[in-house]
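Final report, Chapter 2: Outcomes

The project's central promise was a pipeline that accepts a single protein chain and returns its three-dimensional structure in a standardized token representation, suitable for archiving and comparison. That pipeline is now operational. To close this chapter, we reproduce one record exactly as it appears in the project archive, with the input sequence first and the structure output second.
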Amino acid sequence: MQTVPVYQTEDIREIEKYLFSLDPKPNLMEIAGKTVANVALHVAPRDSQTALVLAGPGDNGGDAYVTARHLKNANYSVVVLSLSSPETVSQDRSRAIADWQEMGGIIKTNIDPEEHFDLVIDGLFGIGLTRPLSGDFADLVHQVNQLSSTVIAIDISSGLDSDTGNVMGCSIHAHHTVTFLGYKVGLHTGEGPDYSGIVHFSDLNMDDYPRPDTSGYLIGSEVLQNVLVPRKKSSHKGSHGQIAIIGGDEGMVGAILLAGRAALKLGAGRVFIGALRGPLLAVDQVQPELMIRVASELLSQNEFNCIAIGPGLGNDDLAHQTLSKSLSQPVPVILDAGALNLVADHNQLKSKISDRDCPTVLTPHPKEAARLLKCSVEEIQSDRVHSALSLANEFNSEVILKGVGSVCAFPDGNWFINTTGNPGMACAGMGDVLTGIVGALITQGAYSHSAVVAGVYLHGLAADQLLSDNKGPIGMTASETIDTSRSILNQHLTGILA
């Protein structure tokens, strides 16, 4: 499993405190500014010549002055804009300002509306911002966001909460972010990805510093390599498990078909579709390998390696009874869509989940998560990591809080942020496909923790591949991600045959 740590502000401050205590003290500001300048030179539009550098009142602003100096040395015409003098100035920042002025650097207090800049370097505020931007700083942010320049943020976009990805009043829209010492939560979930652009990481040449303990990680491609055990040449359909996918009330049969097709093509040996009120079709003409049954009979007559319930389930008494019976089965159960809404409305179902010995996976989008936690969607989105962990703890379940930077949280307190996916996934059926993918991995014997993390990453990666193939973001469909997910999984698995 990929274990790239992701940190909150207090963790980064702990790293900084250690580095500042070294003797001799490393000149982190100089290294940071030079790093930003190098990235800027690499990503700048061809024939770029001018740069506007926004220098704030803290050390982030000091990094900006160093960046300005290195860009000027690279023959850029550079203007530094500073709105205010800091109440307290670090020695490193004072030296950075002095070095800039000694080389004839210009410092302005406003932007000339007639002036054009190829690059904008955002060094207004870093991870230390604790209140919404307002006044002149907010006006400056709005002004910068209207420019046609390539914008590069130092550490994190000014106005973005580094712990949650929430915008504090307003925020710089960066095309690139150069972040230091550790990945920040806010770069990867919430609104963060919309304001951060492409994230570049630098450890400031301090690769041997001690990392703080953290329970959070970014998901990377390693999760796909060993999620499943190698298949033996003598294996047969019974070797790879069977899964029941239950839901599909009247008018919503498409949901369980999508989940079933995903489970089949991601490797489950046998896939049974349990339609709530009986099969609304005798066979799936697209995927006739799916075995379609009445949900109540299916649960009584078969043994499964995994049950996924909820896509198109509905919320009446029959749905409640079917869900309760599913939760009584001694196998991993995945709850999605209608199942989650039933749990939110019935405390006895919540107790049944909490008391289960086998893994339970909850896959809510923010509105469903809000129902489960009896709060508003805004509260869920205000701190997605905390919300996912609260669900994992309260329901003793493994949780996928869907959305940009989907958060996977576990009862042991560990959590992961997904790094794949794109806006093309904002369409009907994507959640159903994800349920089928995770279910297929569990059915084949994957540890449920691994199946959750790998399934989320794989699904997003499939959408990214479709985007790369010009099949999105507009018009991308959930069905398209199934075949692409299958291809990617087979490419990443090591030793598919023993």
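Archive annotation: The domain at 221-492 is CATH 3.40.1190.20 (UDP-N-acetylmuramoyl-L-alanine:D-glutamate ligase).
This record, like all others produced under the grant, will remain available to the consortium after the project formally closes.
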